[in-house]
TrEMBL record:
Chain sites annotated for binding ATP: 16, 28, 76, 94-95
Protein name: Diacylglycerol kinase family protein
Homology family: Belongs to the bacterial diacylglycerol kinase family.
Record: residues binding a divalent metal cation: 28, 76
Keywords on record: ATP-binding, Cell membrane, Kinase, Lipid biosynthesis, Lipid metabolism, Magnesium, Membrane, Metal-binding, Nucleotide-binding, Phospholipid biosynthesis, Phospholipid metabolism, Transferase, Transmembrane, Transmembrane helix
Cofactor binding mode and count: Mn(2+), Zn(2+), Cd(2+) and Co(2+) support activity to lesser extents.
Source organism of the structure: Flavobacterium arcticum
Keyword Protease set for record: no
GO BP: any one term: phospholipid biosynthetic process
Length: 127
């Protein structure tokens, strides 16, 4: 039954979203890897004392990858539910969704390189 009260309805939505995020992180291997990378990059941010702007961009990049991967996973699950056997068009749809993850990951990798390459380079120059 739908709850028409605004605040209570929004709180329920947040609970469902948190449950979904938990399911993603605990059941999907690609999300597990990307979540772990996000934690490592966050730790690197503290180690290298990245700027406020770098934190904002890095956080957006992590969220972009995890969000797009979540959408990709949902598309794959729906496609497998609708058509469990291999089908060329379903495969095409799944490939496109995976391609979106690829673009997000390349973007995040580029951002990481721009933020961390100079810092790592400087660190090795000092040693």
């Amino acid at each position: 039954m739908k709850d028409n009260r605004f605040v209570k309805g929004r709180l329920k939505s947040v609970v469902y979203a948190a449950k979904g995020a938990y399911k993603l992180v605990t059941t999907e291997h690609s999300i597990m890897v990307q979540f772990a990378v996000g934690i490592l990059v966050t730790m690197a941010g503290f180690f290298f004392k990245i700027s406020h702007t770098e934190w904002l961009i890095q956080t957006l990049a992590i969220g972009l990858v995890l969000g797009i991967e979540g959408v990709n996973t949902a598309i794959e699950k729906i496609a497998d539910f609708i058509h469990p056997q291999y089908h060329e068009r379903i495969g095409f749809i799944k490939d496109i969704a995976a391609g979106a993850v690829f673009f997000a990951a390349l973007t995040a990798l580029t951002i990481g390189a721009i933020i961390y390459y100079p810092k790592v380079y400087l660190l090795f120059q000092l040693n």
